[in-house]
């Protein structure tokens, strides 16, 4: 190890060179070795982490190098930190263009998936190892495409949510929990460029530098708060989640489509979106770099009659858009010639499940009241247990329960309903009883209001019967007088 590496606190974890920070506080490694809490000391300024502690990480860009890296990682110790970098704003799809792996005893390895697209060997070597990811649901799909699928997971972002941290980005958690700051200036970089600049490789290595230390600190805090079992169930649910299927009418997710108010305008959105997607897929470009959503929406609103009118619109004047001007014009022309029956209508609600909540009050005011009641219960419980309401009970579970609750809404029935909609056991255990009680009180109020209304209406309905003798009295009196 060089003197420069020692000055950075490099070397193996727990080494004396990395035991303390310049201000005298323990480093993450030194704190753990000394049994100290890694939480930032009150008032202490965080320390920038500018270089990997072991020096520059190795870039693996050949199969032999990958085999050697896998062998080293296989004999490492403890959990393995993993991260993936994509180029979603530059390339089509969400595949990984760099995979970072770090394990105690093996150091940090940066794998180039363009040169090494098969990570099944890594997957087999780490089959029994806990994998530490931050926001795992974002990286697991692109890692699975490479043949790497963890069996055991610790998600540091999800752990931060369960612990109630107000900011759960990797940089924010590392700073608040470990007292270090990470550079985050390259988060939106184009990771598909080759060769990758040294500054991007350094940035990528730092993303996994402290991930296991962060995992250890968060795990200890979860245990302190009695939330370890919660976390284990959440991590298992992330691993078990099935990849989402293709969306129906994906063009309806075009940003700004709410500004399009005619069916022919919607047809233009559909045609332009589909043509753009074909081009983007063929050229391996992010669709927004071919034609921005703003341009599609503007064309749908204006319904241009000529190519000149189309290319004069904002968003159609960039080089990428001009390159395919004739394609856009043909798409618009097709729509202008379509019969009314061929035009798309408003978006249909999902084939199953409740409608959008903003329509509940109009369609079913009673269900809207149930939704407000359940949301209030969940928010209060979340506040009590210091975590976000959406992590205590997923919003979709809340909506489904409120839209079509069990009848009767007893505790056992609510528990079964929550579980059927995907709530984890710990979530069911915390929420079923309070929700059942709240729904019961709501039902009692509705019954009481109905009975009160019936009672108030009863005299009004009976009034003509009571008034009849009064109205008949003069006739009866006349008959008596005549008699």
Task: Summarize the structure in words.
With 483 residues, this protein is α/β, with parallel strands linked by helices. It folds into three domains: 35-240, Nucleotidyltransferase, domain 5; 250-342, DNA polymerase, domain 1 (Orthogonal Bundle), CATH 1.10.150.80; 357-451, HRDC domain (DNA polymerase, domain 1), CATH 1.10.150.80. It is 53% helix and 8% strand. The chain is built from 22 helices and eight strands. It has helices spanning 3-7, 28-33, 63-74, 120-125, 136-145, 156-162, 170-178, 198-209, 211-224, 228-240, 263-283, 287-290, 293-302, 307-311, 319-323, 325-336, 360-363, 365-385, 389-392, 395-403, 411-420, 425-482; strands at residues 47-49, 58-60, 77-86, 96-104, 107-111, 130-133, 152-155, 180-182. The strands form two sheets. A six-stranded mixed β-sheet has the order 2-5-4-3-6-7, sandwiched between helices. It has a two-stranded parallel sheet with strand order 1-8. Strand 6 (130-133), helix 5 (136-145) and strand 7 (152-155) form a beta-alpha-beta unit. The longest helix has 58 residues, at 425-482. 33% of the residues are buried.
């Amino acid at each position: 190890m060089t003197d420069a590496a020692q000055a950075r606190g490099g070397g193996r974890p727990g080494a004396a060179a990395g035991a303390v920070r310049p201000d005298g506080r323990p480093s993450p490694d030194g704190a753990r070795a000394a049994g100290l809490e890694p939480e930032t000391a009150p008032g202490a300024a965080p320390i920038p982490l500018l270089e990997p502690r072991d020096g520059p990480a190795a870039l693996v860009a050949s199969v032999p190098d990958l085999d050697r890296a896998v062998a080293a990682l296989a004999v490492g110790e403890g959990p393995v930190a993993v991260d993936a970098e994509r180029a979603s704003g530059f390339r089509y799809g969400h595949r990984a263009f760099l995979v970072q792996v770090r394990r105690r005893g093996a150091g940090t390895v940066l794998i180039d998936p363009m040169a090494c697209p098969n990570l099944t060997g890594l997957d087999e070597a780490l089959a029994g190892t806990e994998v530490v990811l931050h926001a795992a649901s974002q990286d697991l799909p692109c890692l699975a495409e490479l043949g790497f699928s963890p069996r055991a997971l610790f998600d540091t972002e999800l752990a931060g949510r369960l612990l109630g941290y107000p900011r759960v980005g990797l940089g924010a958690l590392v700073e608040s929990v470990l007292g270090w700051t990470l550079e985050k200036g390259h988060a939106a970089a184009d990771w598909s460029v080759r060769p990758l600049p040294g500054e991007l490789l350094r940035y990528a290595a730092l993303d996994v530098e402290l991930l296991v230390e962060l995992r250890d600190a968060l795990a200890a805090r979860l245990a302190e708060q009695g939330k370890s079992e919660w976390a284990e169930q959440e991590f298992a649910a992330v691993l078990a989640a099935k990849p989402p299927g293709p969306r129906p009418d994906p063009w309806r997710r075009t940003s700004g489509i709410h500004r399009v108010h005619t069916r022919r305008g919607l047809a233009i959105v559909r045609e332009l979106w589909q043509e753009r997607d074909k081009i983007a897929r063929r050229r391996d470009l992010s669709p927004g770099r071919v034609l921005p959503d703003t341009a599609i929406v503007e064309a749908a609103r204006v319904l241009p009659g000529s190519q000149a009118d189309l290319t004069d619109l904002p968003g159609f004047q960039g080089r990428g858009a001009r390159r395919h001007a004739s394609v856009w014009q043909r798409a618009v022309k097709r729509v202008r010639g379509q019969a009314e029956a061929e035009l798309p209508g408003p978006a249909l609600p999902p084939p199953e499940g409740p409608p959008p909540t903003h329509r509940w009050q109009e369609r079913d005011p009673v269900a809207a009241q149930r939704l407000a009641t359940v949301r209030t219960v969940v928010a209060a419980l979340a506040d009590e247990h210091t975590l976000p309401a959406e992590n205590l009970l997923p919003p979709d579970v809340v909506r489904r329960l409120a839209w079509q609750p069990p009848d009767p809404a007893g505790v056992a029935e609510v528990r079964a309903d929550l579980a059927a909609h995907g709530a984890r056991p710990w979530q069911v255990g915390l929420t079923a009883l309070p929700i059942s009680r709240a729904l019961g009180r709501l039902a009692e109020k509705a019954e009481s209001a109905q009975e009160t209304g019936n009672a108030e209406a009863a005299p009004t309905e009976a009034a003509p019967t009571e008034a009849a003798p009064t109205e008949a009295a003069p006739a009866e009196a006349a008959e008596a007088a005549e008699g």
